[in-house]
Automatic annotation (TrEMBL):
PANTHER family: OXOGLUTARATE/IRON-DEPENDENT DIOXYGENASE. This is 2OG-Fe(II) oxygenase superfamily. It holds the Pfam family DIOX_N. Belongs to the iron/ascorbate-dependent oxidoreductase family. It comes from Musa troglodytarum (fe'i banana).
Length: 436
């Protein structure tokens, strides 16, 4: 077991590679970048804020110490940090392989993980919720959202209030990006340090079996992390459309957060407050799944639950691919025209003390069709502790299922390992404090 002093030395080492940065800010933002914030490392667990003010370094150490049951020793923590610096082997864009006659071995999943196993009947699908009555909450909308989050962790929303013209423009801009020449896309090649940019793998395990998909990952909030220079320059309308889309979908998330809060019997703003109020984080991942020579052997995205708060998915308007695990069976989602798919992430599961479920999902691919989807990740402010909302623990016999942890600490592990079902949130359940 690592000692606090050895962890402290380790943290100091990482603090020493921080550098000042000023990034363009599009709008007023209360959550400002500390002067020496390690922007390149912000997806790693060490926020400069936890290293500056008196005592907060110790707080960070104790948060890291909570993770130690998952780690053999400090060397293992160092190992995680080191291997997040670069990809372990050259990255090959999946798009460049899609015309190959056979599926390269790197993408062949073991038989138990292949998509044909356990597929459900078409008749079952995730609930659909009409949001026209939000934020007022009439017409049973709060109950419908709450039911969906308790039993499915997923639902589709119609009448969501986001302009359909904007959605079309945004989607076409990103489709255009993925059809640019490879050299243009590679200008934005990403690394596991921040994942920002054009990428083709998640996780840094050498020799891992990979998913059949490319993606573009970017930060939208907090505004000090948003950097247009890291977003594609082409097609020319992409940045503007992405900015507008981010603003509108954030508004949608805030409305849905109110419904989630009311559905738990809390004040409408309680969950938003627990997530960091106006200082929430937003990242966007645009997924591009090229045609695959053997879709029966591969997955576009391996089973995972989303680590953040809520995810708003813009699914492909023509090609299905998302599957949700329900009672051990994979259900194919059939997106309605002009709908969004919303799912609960691990942080909402934690805040709700597992009343709401963050559910495993995966993506299947196709031989003849490529597919584009956009995941809008609505996350907590990354440096505040996220634990079950105390009001939910007031009733006798209601024990906290999770210890508080920052989102920075939480996602460190996911970034290293890539998608691994629900193992992350479940391992933290196992660490809950008995009797609290
Ligand atoms: O492509 C999809 O339908 C789902 C994408 C997804 O689960 C993700 O980006 O986390």
């Amino acid at each position: 077991m690592a000692t606090h002093s050895s962890i402290s030395t380790f943290i100091t080492r990482f603090a020493s590679i921080t550098s000042p940065s000023s990034l363009p800010c599009q709008r007023p933002c209360t959550h400002t970048a500390p002067s020496a914030r390690p922007v390149a490392l912000l997806l790693l667990p060490f926020h400069a804020s936890s290293l500056h003010s008196d005592g907060s370094k110790e707080a960070h150490i104790s948060r890291i110490a909570l993770l130690l049951p998952l780690l053999k020793d400090t060397a293992q923590l160092e190992d995680i940090m080191d291997c997040l610096q670069e990809w372990p082997e050259p990255v090959v864009p999946v798009q460049s392989l899609s015309e190959a006659p056979t599926l390269p071995d790197r993408y062949v999943k073991p038989p138990s993980q292949r998509p044909s196993v356990g597929d459900a009947a078409r008749s079952l699908d995730i609930p659909v919720v009409d949001l026209a009555m939000l934020p007022g909450g009439g017409g049973g909308v709060v109950e419908a959202v709450s039911e969906a989050c308790r039993h499915w962790g997923f639902f589709q929303v119609v009448n969501h209030g986001v302009s359909l013209e904007l959605v079309r423009r945004f989607r076409e801009a990103w489709r255009g990006f993925f059809h640019l020449p490879m050299e243009e896309k590679k200008r934005y090649a990403n690394s596991p340090r921040t994942y920002e940019g054009y990428g083709s793998r998640l996780g840094v395990d050498e020799g891992a079996i990979l998913d059949w998909g490319d993606y573009y990952f970017l930060h939208f909030l907090p505004c000090y992390l948003k950097d247009h220079d890291k977003w594609p320059e082409l097609p020319p309308c992409l940045r503007e459309a992405t900015d507008e889309y981010g603003v509108e979908v954030r508004k949608l998330c805030r409305r849905v957060m109110k419904a989630l809060s009311l559905g738990l019997g809390l004040d409408a703003d309680r969950l938003q407050k627990a997530l960091g109020g106006d200082d929430e984080g937003v990242c966007i991942r645009v997924n591009f799944y090229p045609r695959c020579p053997r879709p029966d052997l591969a997955l576009g995205l391996s089973p995972h639950s989303d680590p953040g708060g809520l995810t708003v998915l813009l699914a492909d308007d023509h090609v299905h691919g998302l599957q949700v695990r329900k009672d051990g069976v994979w259900i194919t989602v059939h997106p309605l025209p002009n709908a969004f798919i919303i799912n609960v992430g691990d942080q909402i599961q934690v805040l709700s003390n597992a009343e709401y479920k963050s559910v495993e999902h995966r993506v299947v691919v196709h031989a003849k069709e490529e597919r584009l989807s956009v995941a809008f990740f609505y996350n907590p402010r990354s440096d505040i502790p996220i634990g079950p909302v105390p009001e939910l623990l007031a009733a006798p016999g209601r024990a906290a299922l999770y210890r508080p942890m920052t989102f920075d600490d939480y996602r460190l592990f996911i970034r290293r390992r890539g998608p691994r079902g629900k193992s992350q949130v479940e391992s933290f359940e196992a660490m809950a404090i008995p009797g609290t």
